[in-house]
Amino acid sequence: MNTTDPTAPAITYADSGVDTAAGDRAVELMKEAVAATHGPQVLGGIGAFAGLVDVSALKDYQRPLLASSTDGVGTKIAIAREMDIHDTIGRDLVGMVVDDIIVVGAAPLAMTDYIACGQVVPERVADIVRGIAEGCQLAGCALVGGETAEHPGLMAPEDYDVAGAAVGVVEADQLLGPDRVRHGDVVIGMDASGLHSNGFSLVRAVIAAQGLALDTHVDDFGRSLGQELLEPTRIYTADLLAVLGDERSQGAIHALSHVTGGGLAANLARVMPRGLAARVDRSTWEPASVFAQMSRWGSVPQLDLEGTLNMGIGMVALVGADQADSVLAVLAERGLGARVIGEVIGEDALPEPGTPLEQVITGAKGVEGGAVLLASQHPGWA
């Protein structure tokens, strides 16, 4: 039985909160940025149901291994929304995804993104995707597809979230990981660009407790608080591929660790083999002022800070000691600050912690491997 009331107003999809025309407008605004990431290996264009990548080059591999990763940006989005700056979030997303792929030595091939929002604002969506495309260009990765979903009633009109996934390839005998790490290897730490995209629940709690406005100028930063917090995540992929491919440093890197949630020690422990330990010396680098400010503003205990933020080191390499200088030389030529921050020793040779700050980390992220000890103290830190 048809119970429709003929006098009731008609309800359209737009009335329910979904504006398909706005979605189409967003696609038009982002097309050029996305196309800029496409090389001859990418087939088709924007609007297809699936992105296509020609992988004929894999026929030249002896045993190609596909590496995949997926991630998001987290609550850093709240800062972007309040600042109404959205392109940096896209670069954050790429860094979080592709730099997990390079950890195993894989070169990224293609990436896709997903944006969920309460209301499609074409210009905002285009800004996000433009940032993703810029990040993909920095990483040498094609952005081959994506989805923008409008969720009225589930998300507020100004709300959005982003996620991405990428796939890469590595020759099986070039795979990096714990099995390559040796006693006597050195630990090389590579500079972060800032907070990157982890720990923003802590960061936002500190800011809220201090009652700080994002447009507050901070002398130590030389810019506003919001601008400092939105500094994009450094993308290490191209730099590390250069090291892996340079004849001076081929075979030098045994393992890599992307310093994300959990901090340096917990992530480094994920690539330490059983029986070995990394002793990391804090005195070899000074974290950027943003980390010290977070500690002071929130009276955050240092170990809690280190277990949440990257503390100025965004990527770590375990390298044969005799080739460390070659690795550092290639990174320096590419403008990436890096230094030796520790060494690999036998786990049974780890000294007993001498201060409350010396803490041995094992079994991080469910990995039953070796250990990491953070020793000494950063310059300028009490």
From TrEMBL:
The keyword Nucleotide-binding applies. Residues 183-348 form the PurM-like C-terminal domain. One of its GO terms (molecular function) is phosphoribosylformylglycinamidine cyclo-ligase activity. Pfam families: AIRS (PF00586), AIRS_C (PF02769). Residues 65-170 form the PurM-like N-terminal domain. Pathway: Purine metabolism; IMP biosynthesis via de novo pathway; 5-amino-1-(5-phospho-D-ribosyl)imidazole from N(2)-formyl-N(1)-(5-phospho-D-ribosyl)glycinamide: step 2/2. It is found in: Cytoplasm. It catalyses: 2-formamido-N(1)-(5-O-phospho-beta-D-ribosyl)acetamidine + ATP = 5-amino-1-(5-phospho-beta-D-ribosyl)imidazole + ADP + phosphate + H(+). Keywords: ATP-binding, Cytoplasm, Ligase, Nucleotide-binding, Purine biosynthesis. PANTHER family: TRIFUNCTIONAL PURINE BIOSYNTHETIC PROTEIN ADENOSINE-3, TRIFUNCTIONAL PURINE BIOSYNTHETIC PROTEIN ADENOSINE-3-RELATED. NCBIfam families: purM. Belongs to the AIR synthase family. This is Phosphoribosylformylglycinamidine cyclo-ligase.
